[in-house]
Fold this sequence. Notes:
22 helices; four-stranded parallel β-sheet; six-stranded antiparallel β-sheet; alpha+beta
Amino acid sequence: MEEKKFKRTTVTAALPYANGGVHIGHLAGVYVPADIYVRYLRLKKQDVVFIGGSDEHGVPITIRAKKEGITPQDVCDRYHKIIKDSFKEFGISFDIYSRTTSKVHSKLASDFFRKLYDDGKLIEKESEQLYDPEAKQFLADRYVMGTCPHCGNPNAYGDQCEKCGSDLSPMELINPHSTISGAKPELRKTKNWYLPLNQYQDWLKQWILEGHKEWRPNVYGQCKSWLDMDLQPRAMTRDLDWGIPVPVEGADGKVLYVWFDAPIGYISNTKELCDAEPERWGSWEKWWKDPETRLIHFIGKDNIVFHCLIFPVMLKAHGGYILPDNVPANEFLNLENDKISTSRNWAVWLDEYLKDFPGKQDVLRYVLTANAPETKDNNFTWKDFQERNNSELVAIYGNFVNRALQLTKKYWNGVVPACGELLDVDKQAIQEFKDVKEKVEQYLDNFKFREAQKEAMNLARIGNKYITECEPWKVWKTDPKRVETILNISLQLVANLAIAFEPFLPFSSKKLREMINLKNFDWAELGSTTLLEAGHQLAEPQLLFEKIEDEAIQYQLDKLAATKKANEAAEAAKDYKAEPIKANIPFDEWEKLDIRVGHIKDCQKVKKSNKLLQFTLDDGSGTDRTILSGIAKFYKPEDLIGKDVLFIANLAPRKMMGIESQGMILSALNFDGSLSVTTTLSEVKPGSQVG
């Protein structure tokens, strides 16, 4: 089948939920490949628009808002800024990054729904849904928790069990309860509007299964598995109080389903961009309604059904819109052999990475592309991150560039020498890199970013091999003219690297272009051996990349270890049940205990004991009191000095490790076996009685 030629391309990247930051799974799955592709099209002087934005409706945002005691808009405002700023600093080159709480979006999404409603493309249907009788509201799936029927996890959500990964419905949960009030949900009838996907099943089969066999196997396969089943009508409205109100009479208390609302954000964000700069971008409709425009969606595999089935049906039902030509969805990226999870904080967050590794945006871009989960789930480890930086970016790419530029500075004061007679070794090197443009383009055109970057890195490998074989530092002593040719070819390779890596590593490519004074360049020139003319003055060489030391990697591993420990403690806390209350005692038994407040003047470890700390207490009597306590595993002595604690003053003295202990400091035994010293909420004089 002849490939269709397009005049322009609309590229969208999945809208991240504005209820948290962006992590490396998002970057590897969506934003880095999308940015590489867009930068590539721009370098080829193609007409392209790159659309992004925050998805600011939906249950995850309301859950975080309730948890923090703030409004959903407060949550959106905070995370929209964090996400937008992080993307910008990381070099994700959106033409616009807007949001679904904008007025432009609200109107366009509302009008879109209304047209479907007016044209009779939606079905009005009554169904039973879970309702919280105490909170007096219908419950979204995430507002229901209970026991997973598959693994017995008592804290499974109504849409998924995060312990075993099973997809669930709230009706499947054992002993479900509302996360809002804790009440047992009731089934109540409610009315919503549905998109009849079943009516478009035959069209979808023809359009995807017959018309888009070139789609990635994971995308095509998931679509086929859905289309092999009978599609059912899907609700496009929800009983919620956060979102775009349903623009229909009798729809009070209902909002547009977030997966109806969000993809329209691509269109509304394009409209916002075009309305602001019509002289540059023209009408938004040419990007969404002109058949000569190609539409590409970059997403993760969990969004395939929405972008390949539901959104296309919405566009088809509305009429007048183009459909996606390709949806290069990636699989998932794991972290240190464990599934990335925002709820467990098992992630590398972009905003934190940018603080921990300033100026190293390209290192992460390189590693994520090298490990891109294009055909199957892949894994990110900090050791691999360090290894790829040190052994590839530094030792191969950076090393070759530095050798070529430093030798040119040493022998010709940074002026590009002329190319003389070519020997076989020169011709072989030129032959090896002259077809790099065709190879990189072939991979990028087919969304194989991992292979394309590998091909770009091969240029540096060719350069290192060439300069090592030619040994210009030795030849200089006997044949300076020959060295001119060696360095000319080496510098042409360096200039090619600056162009080839531009889509992948924009920051280091910019730095390299500045070093070789390559201000104007064209993608069409990739593979050329005349990018730098003889006599061209180079700038001062600098290191393109720097080694990442073990300490920086250990810090990241320690952070993850702390997260894992906190998660284990949280899991243990969920299952924690307090010990049964002991038998009652007469009140006068309690009155025999003399519990007082003591001020810790000094604290130190007891020699030859791993367990005991020795306290010197001011007990208000004017004479210091010594008490031993077995809490050395849980506290450093210096952290306790100056604190006020509760102690039993009238216990009979007891000798331990040769030291007399005159009482007992009170501690609470936590669910995880740790001890927490009891203290007072405000300052109390030493010796004050408790009771």
